[in-house]
Amino acid sequence: MIDADRILNDPFLNKGTAFTKAERAKLGLVGTLPAKVQTIDEQAQRVYEQYELRPDGMQKRKFLMEIFNTNRTLFYYVLQQHLVELLPVVYDPVIAPAVEKYSEIFMKPQGAAFLSIDDPDNIKESLLNAASGRQIKLIVVTDGEGILGIGDWGANGVNIAVGKLMVYTAAAGIDPREVLPVSLDVGTNNQELIDDPFYLGNKHERVAGKKYYDFVDKFVKAAREAFPGVYLHFEDFGRDNATKILKEYRQDLPIFNDDVQGTGIVCLSGVLGALNISGEKFTDQIFLIFGAGTAGMGIANMLYREMLVEGMDPQEAKKHFYLVDKQGLLFSDTPDLTPEQKPFVRERSEFKNSEELTNLEAVVKAVHPTVMIGTSTKPGAFTEAVVKEMAAHTARPIIFPISNPTKLIEAHAEDLIKWTDGRALVATGIPSDPVEYKGVTYHIGQANNALIYPGLGLGVLASQAKLVPDELLSAAAHSLGGIVDPKKPGAAVLPPVAKLQSFTAKEAVAVVQTAIDLGIASRDVLDAKKATEAMKWEARY
Ligand SMILES: NC(=O)c1ccc[n+]([C@@H]2O[C@H](COP(=O)([O-])OP(=O)(O)OC[C@H]3O[C@@H](n4cnc5c(N)ncnc54)[C@H](O)[C@@H]3O)[C@@H](O)[C@H]2O)c1
Ligand SMILES: O=C(O)C[C@H](O)C(=O)O
Ligand SMILES: [Mn+2]
């Protein structure tokens, strides 16, 4: 006898009012549901109408999470039907307060694995328990140290892993049964959490150094043992750890850091899209990265690699980059440089006034960037003066203020369009409404890694690639071309989120083909399109 309660409470099995009469008879559900058998469309309409009644983003998100927790198929059906409207609610920017309030409004563990540094011997068991018999192919893991731009949120960070996985399924059709969010709870340095009686994570300082890396290593090994071949997506680790961990494992297993690589891909894609509009050459660009941290250096490396692919000499290519961080323009003698920043620093002898280059405006004046990307978490840093100075020296300034969430953005799209009299080619990390200016509607691309990591992931899973080398990242970045019509006035530099599912599929095929060409795909994978299509889960009963 199958237990009705168990079925109705299992989000992977439950269809609610959509169970047919025959299913109700077979599964012991007769009498446990109202008489009417609904279609998924009818259920989705009901859910959407209820959703609309909720007064704000957080309430809307909470309501959607209830659907997520009770009926995963219905949740994804509704999400895909209203993707443009719902994505900012389940993901960025509403995900930010949802992380901050995670412990206060804790509802359900949402199938996540919670791994504690104070209990390092039970990692594999914890992963298997959380998977509950499901064969996991994709893990999104976070240690919560650098959530978006809002900092250390400890174990509350698990919400970002849950949210990123929602985007994987909504955009790329990754089977939600095959994914696992993981929280590495190593403590927190956020005093607000330590003082919060409701905080659900470990109430001690973040463990660092060898003990921390050993714990990460145990997690990586246990995950591979529990789920052979699993693709590991790292999200929102701190600046000191993100790239270090990526480098440690990249040569051995399929691993991806979204903030480093995902952001790099989407920004390269956006720059290529912008140059498609302006007609300028990639190798003529001067790049200024404002906020040379995890994301900023991921972007710099991706753009740099593209310079080499375009045939530029490595030393010459480096000269096209300027990094600005808290210290101002980064020079070889600047204190506290990170290992990632060091290869891209400049010499003081290049400038007459190097001592003065301690703020963005002075640097823009001195180096005349053609592309300026903001990953600084410094709101409003791209001031009118900075932007006008940049625009005085280049016909189509490419400006991507991509710090998240909304309150941290370096400039708003509308201002950038106005300050440059419609010349700026803009993308933002959060969704931005189109800007009406002098009779033209400017569409604003969303330079958020969510536009590309689902397609890359689908490609990696479909090809069963053993590694994720630079060539796959490059294939992903180049796959987004040809979707936007660059000749249309006000065209966006990236394709619209409304088309996310179709360009994600295109991207995945490009990634699988590249994996086949490189010889890192599974031997059985011969046809990129077929392999990609075969992976796709659809939200239907
Ligand atoms: N749109 C996207 O897809 C995307 C992806 C990743 C990160 N981001 C955003 O980028 C921002 C940075 O994220 P991260 O993971 O790189 O963080 P990080 O902490 O690794 O890097 C931030 C960098 O900015 C520097 N910085 C801080 N204040 C500054 C200031 N006043 N002036 C100049 N530099 C300053 C820091 O020193 C650091 O080097 C966040 O807001 C995050 O949401 C966006
Ligand atoms: O989560 C996002 O919206 C993008 C990015 O990964 C970030 O950390 O800001
Ligand atoms: Mn992130």
Question: Could you explain the architecture of this structure?
Answer:
By secondary structure, the chain is an alpha/beta fold. It has 3 domains: 4-88, Hemocyanin, N-terminal domain (Up-down Bundle); 95-258, Rossmann fold (3-Layer(aba) Sandwich); 261-451, Rossmann fold (3-Layer(aba) Sandwich). Helices cover 43% and strands 10% of the residues. The protein has helices at residues 4-8, 21-27, 40-53, 57-70, 72-81, 83-90, 95-100, 123-131, 158-172, 191-194, 209-226, 242-249, 258-278, 294-309, 314-318, 360-367, 384-391, 413-419, 453-463, 470-478, 500-518, 528-535; strands at residues 113-116, 138-142, 179-185, 231-234, 255-257, 287-290, 321-325, 328-329, 371-374, 398-401, 425-428, 435-437, 440-442, 445-446. A 7-stranded mixed beta sheet has the order 8-7-6-9-10-11-14, with helices on both faces. A 5-stranded parallel beta sheet has the order 1-3-2-4-5, with helices on both faces. (2S)-2-hydroxybutanedioic acid (LMR) binds next to helix 13.
